[in-house]
Amino acid sequence: MIEIRDLAKRYGDTVAVDGLTFDVKPGWVTGFLGPNGAGKSTTMRLILGLDAPSRGTAKVNGRAYRDIHRPLFEVGALLEARGIHPGRSARDHLLALAQANGIPRGRVDHVLEMVGLASVAHKRAGGFSLGMNQRLGIAGALLGDPEVLLLDEPVNGLDPEGIIWIRTLLRGLAAEGRTVLLSSHLMSEMSMTAHRLIVIGRGRLIADTSVEEFIQRSSGNYVRVRSPEPDRLRALLAPHAQSLEDTDDGALLVGGLDCPTVADAAFEAGIRIHELAAETASLEEAYLELTQDSVEYRPDPPSDPRTQSVAAAPVT
Amino acid sequence: MTTTISADPTLALERSRPDTLPLTGVIASEATKFRSVRSTWWTLLCTAAMMVGFGVLFCYAYVARFDRLDARERLLFDPTLHSLRGLFLAQLAVGVLGVLIVTNEYATGMIRNTFAAVPQRSAVLAAKLVVFSAAALVVTTVSSFAAFLVGQSILSQKHVQASLSDPGVLRAVIGAALYLVGIGVLGVGLGVLLRRTAGAIATLVGLILVLPILAQALPSPWNTDVAKLLPDGAGQAILQVHHTTDSLSPLIGFALFCGYLAVILTAAFITLARRDA
């Protein structure tokens, strides 16, 4: 359980985190989303007591992190900067962390096996690939078999096999009743791993909800309907729908109505329907829609046609 | 649910222990970090090589020059101090090691993992000081005695050697080792205060090499008066077998040196606890 109350952090004139309040509950994988510079990494550092908050509190299992004497047994963290000395072997890196909290040596070998680095345990980390460093960082987070896990971009640099591994691992840990908070820029990954979402922008909370609810709330949800009498159908739906849009292949995208409503209305009016389907927005679309006002660094003008079409989708 | 990740039974015992900070664990952790990077061994080897190597070189040079020296020069000669002159370079190596054990962690980001594991930051710094001082003391003591013994055997060709049993000699040889450890501790403190390797090493060099040269440029008698009060001048007073007015008395000088270290370390402990990592 992580409890954040009115948390704020200011670096000089820059406000990195501005009055955040949310809980990260056990039993779920909670995704932590936000544009670059939104304050995700700062929030994680504040939770870990690495930076001192300008205002508010962050508590882990009811205590401020700095009051925990052997924190690795309670909280495992994978930080933005992985913090691995390139000249030190994987095993020595983990051993140093383990010794600091009185974690037995055997556990070091155990986590090295869990993350698949046992065969390179005595190799210096400087020669590791990005993915191997990532696994080493995750091994460090798992050292104390903690109840709470904070992972900043854990899938960065992992191959597809590694991504599936960490997804399974995190959902498994949550299923055991642990608290898992993870940040990622990969929306598809987040939609597959996370149950709940905390979205922040410019240091403020934008959403604290389940993944399903988050997507449902998005205006990117449509009913796709095809009829041999499109003009009659359009006239029928126009007063009720939030948006109506013709697609290239002759179907109609109806915003703001659900499938039963469209089907019943067409039936009553005697309009034949050849295709009826619900189209839900992707997490990515929902996310971009919600955070478009809080992006700190935006290309100007937007040059990527793909971003443009996504952003333009809800407009009719 | 994945079986491999369910609560590890081997941790149950440790987990059940009272929630107190095991300082021995933090020291063991720092010892692991200390021994597991190459820079430690290189800088320690460098320290020993400078101390012994340059001591030998200076002693040979003196022996070679001996016949051309006048009576006054022979009278003022301090064979103990002469064999320990490698200290001027050895202090750089040991100081760099002191800096590196702190700044390495900032450079790699390891410091955040360290403080996430041990939020009581003063315990981390204390453990670093314990580990560093213990290792450095072994190396500098062995080097200092080696430099002295080898140096004296060279000087014995001209029968000007000193013996460990002569008054003040043992204090000078052990003092050289303690001075070197102190310079390393200064490096640790500067590493904490400045966080950057380059900045901390530059400051260390400024304090122990540049400041004394600047002090010498002052008009007499301020030059010697100031020089003997600087950290290196005060600390090296303990090397003097024959006390001269150019330096403080051995114990007062070394006490002043320790005072400087105390100031730097106090600043380091306070800064570390307050600053964002």
Describe this protein with a few key phrases.
heterodimer, A: 316 residues, alpha/beta, Rossmann fold, Alpha-Beta Plaits, 2 domains, 34% helix, elongated, B: 277 residues, mainly alpha, 13 helices, 74% helix, disordered N terminus
Written description of the protein model:
The complex is a heterodimer of chains A (316) and B (277). Chain A has 316 residues and is of the alpha/beta class. Chain A folds into two domains: 2-216, Rossmann fold; 222-279, Alpha-Beta Plaits. In chain A, 34% of the residues lie in helices and 25% in strands. Chain A contains eleven helices and 14 strands. Chain A has helices at residues 40-47, 90-100, 105-114, 130-142, 160-175, 187-193, 211-217, 230-237, 259-269, 283-291, 305-312, and strands at residues 2-11, 14-24, 29-33, 55-60, 63-64, 75-78, 148-152, 179-183, 196-201, 204-210, 222-226, 243-246, 252-255, 275-279. In chain A, the strands form three sheets. A six-stranded mixed β-sheet of chain A has the order 6-7-8-3-9-10, with helices on both faces. Chain A has a four-stranded antiparallel β-sheet with strand order 2-1-4-5, covered by helices on one side. Chain A is elongated. Residues 302-316 of chain A have low confidence and may be disordered. By secondary structure, chain B is mainly alpha-helical. Chain B has one domain (22-274). Chain B is 74% helix and 0% strand. Chain B contains 13 helices and no strands. Chain B has helices at residues 12-16, 23-35, 38-65, 71-76, 79-83, 87-108, 110-117, 121-155, 169-194, 197-216, 222-227, 231-235, 250-274. The interface between A and B is large, with 53 and 45 residues.
